[in-house]
Structure formats: structure tokens, C-alpha cells
Design goal:
With 287 residues, the chain is an alpha+beta fold. The chain has nine helices and 14 strands. The radius of gyration is 25 Å and the shape is globular. The termini are far apart.
Length: 287
């Protein structure tokens, strides 16, 4: 026999003079209302629009329901509020807060959700350089994305700073399945990726996803050279300090910066490499 639930409220034990009641007439409810503050922050810096500009959409315009800006915004705001899994967007595609953030509370077509689901977002992330797949019609410009993070950092300063400290580090991104490119890392003692990060204070300058079967400093010299060159183009006189642990004390990284800045290097007995303070300082601290 099918159970029929007709109660509109559930009453619990009172607390003092107050009644505790559970009601189910709240309509559409969302627990991510704080994301509206992220929308205000995005309106100030234009992150979603600028990030969406790093993609090229080769789909037929008359058949598009979810624009690139909507897809990128869904992923960014979803990650920001803790929804890392694409499967979460099967529910988030109907979320009123997410729709308000992206300015799309209703769909143009019948029987279509206002926002994209997991399959559409998956095709955005698994893009290919060659438009040979009928299901992958959106391509990206990785170099434009790299430049965007540094541009946002530089635009956050009203005046050119006198000194910039670049923090460089690698960390583990634990894996819990048979993801492509997973490897066991002996230091972290589990299967993971080994992404490379560069920050200046609270500003992200670089985030590079890498496999874990490589040296922690792999690719660091090219990333730092790119970031320093972009900063120098805007702030030619700024003093730059590169701060990293001993895992990044590599000859190729030090000499690459030396060649880039054309500066002399002096090595101190405390395992610190410092470069002429008038332009750039390279520091390596052991842990």
C-alpha cells in the first residue's frame, strides 16, 4: 500500500515558549545565497566576461541555448560555492541563485533548463584544438587565460608597486578513482595530481595541472619567466622576489631568471640566492 504524506507541518518539542515547527511550503529554496556577493565582485572586475572571451564558439548561433559566458560562469561560481563535481549541475541547472548570477532564470526553448547540465559542461572542459568532433565546437586560448590572471593582479593596484613577492609551490590534488594520468606520489603517499601554483599575496597568477610522476619544479622556469615578463611590461622598475622552498632550487630556474633580467647573482651561505635588489631578487628558502 502506497504511503500518502499529507502533513504540511511537523511539530517538535517546544523550547521554552517557542514552538519548533518544520514546514514544507517554502517554495524553491537555495543554500548558496551567499554567492550573490560573488556576483557583485565579478561585476567589479569582469572575470566571467573576460574568461569567456578566452573561448571561441563555433556552434550555430540559432541553435545555442547556453552561451559560453553561461557555461564558464556556471563552472566558476559552482567551484566557488563548493560544487566541484560536474554531476552537481544536474540540480544547479535549476538553481535560482545560479540563474540570477548569470542573468538567465528561464530558457528560450520548452523542456530545457535555464542553465547547462553536466554533459554540456563536460564538453566545454574536454575541448579539442581540432574541430573534428561534432560534439566539441568550443575551443579555448590557453595563453589568453594565462595572461588574464596576471592582468587581474596588475589591475588591482592603482599605482605600480615598489616590490612584488611571487610565491611558487607545488601541492597534491588527491584522486579517488581511475582518473586519466593518475600516479602514486611517494611523498604524499596517495594517488594524486601535482599542480603548480604561483601567488602574490591573495592573487592567483598561475595554476597548472600536472601529473604526479614529475619533479615538483618541472615547468617552473617557463611559468615564472612568463609572469615576470608580463609584470615587467607594465611595471618596469618594480622589484620582484621569487619565494619558494628548496624543491625549487634548480640551476635551470635560477639561470633562466638571470638571463631574463640580465642581473648578477650572489650566493649566500644560508642557502639563499639573492639578485641585485635594484631590479629583481630571487630567494630560495629550505624547509
Amino acid at each position: 500500500m502506497r504511503t500518502q504524506c499529507t502533513a504540511e507541518q511537523l511539530e517538535f518539542s517546544s523550547v521554552g515558549r517557542r514552538e519548533v515547527v518544520a514546514a514544507f511550503d517554502g517554495g524553491t529554496v537555495c543554500s548558496d545565497a551567499g554567492a550573490l556577493l560573488l556576483g557583485k565582485a565579478d561585476a567589479a572586475i569582469g572575470l566571467i566576461d573576460r574568461l569567456a572571451g578566452c573561448f571561441a564558439d563555433h556552434r550555430r548561433p540559432e541553435l545555442i541555448e547556453h552561451a559560453v559566458r553561461t557555461l564558464v560562469g556556471q563552472r566558476v561560481f559552482g567551484l566557488a560555492v563548493g560544487h566541484e563535481d560536474l554531476n552537481d549541475h544536474e540540480q544547479l541547472r535549476h538553481d535560482p541563485v545560479m540563474g540570477a548570477l548569470l542573468g538567465k532564470l528561464s530558457a528560450r526553448r520548452m523542456r530545457c533548463a535555464p542553465l547547462a547540465g553536466k554533459s554540456t559542461l563536460n564538453r566545454l572542459e574536454l575541448f579539442t584544438d581540432q574541430l573534428q568532433d561534432r560534439y566539441h565546437k568550443i575551443t579555448s586560448d590557453p595563453e589568453a587565460m594565462d595572461r588574464l590572471w596576471v592582468d587581474l593582479f596588475l589591475e588591482a593596484h592603482r599605482r605600480a608597486p615598489k616590490r612584488i613577492v611571487l610565491d611558487l609551490d607545488a601541492t597534491d590534488d588527491p584522486l579517488h578513482g581511475n582518473q586519466e594520468g593518475r600516479f602514486f606520489h611517494g611523498y604524499y603517499n596517495h594517488y594524486c595530481y601535482l599542480p603548480l601554483y604561483s601567488f602574490c599575496g591573495e592573487h592567483l597568477l598561475c595554476a597548472r595541472l600536472r601529473r604526479a610522476n614529475i619533479d615538483g619544479a618541472a615547468g617552473a622556469k617557463d611559468e615564472i619567466a612568463r609572469i615576470v615578463a608580463q609584470i615587467r611590461a607594465r611595471c618596469p622598475k618594480v622589484q620582484i622576489i621569487l619565494r619558494a622552498d628548496s624543491g625549487f632550487c634548480r640551476d635551470e630556474l635560477i639561470f633562466r631568471l638571470f638571463k631574463l633580467s640580465q642581473l648578477s647573482i650572489s650566493v649566500e651561505s644560508t642557502v639563499k640566492c639573492s639578485v641585485d635588489s635594484s631590479r629583481c631578487v630571487l630567494a630560495s628558502r629550505s624547509t
